[in-house]
Design brief:
This protein is an all-alpha fold and 78 residues long. Helix content is 45%, strand content 0%. Helix 1 crosses helix 2.
Length: 78
């Protein structure tokens, strides 16, 4: 992980996109295109509400975000 102050605008948009459908939009699932569309929608809302500039929008839209590898853990039962 990283500190919140080090999160890019694109990363923040991905984080904001997830609560809508966290399982469906998981970056580790089969719906990466839908997650990217939702991220772009969040960026558009940020731009439309003057939270980011057009230049920041363009950079964030094109930024390639790399997710940490998915942790593989087994189910632990008592």
């Amino acid at each position: 992980g990283k500190s919140a102050k080090d999160v890019s605008i694109a990363e923040a948009a991905y984080i904001a996109a997830l609560p809508q459908a966290p399982t469906y939009l998981s970056p580790y699932g089969n719906h990466q295109n839908d997650l990217d569309k939702r991220k772009n929608s969040v960026l558009r809302h940020m731009l439309d509400n003057n939270l980011i500039t057009k230049d920041e929008y363009n950079v964030a839209k094109e930024e390639k975000v790399t997710f940490l590898p998915q942790a593989v853990t087994g189910i632990r039962a008592p």
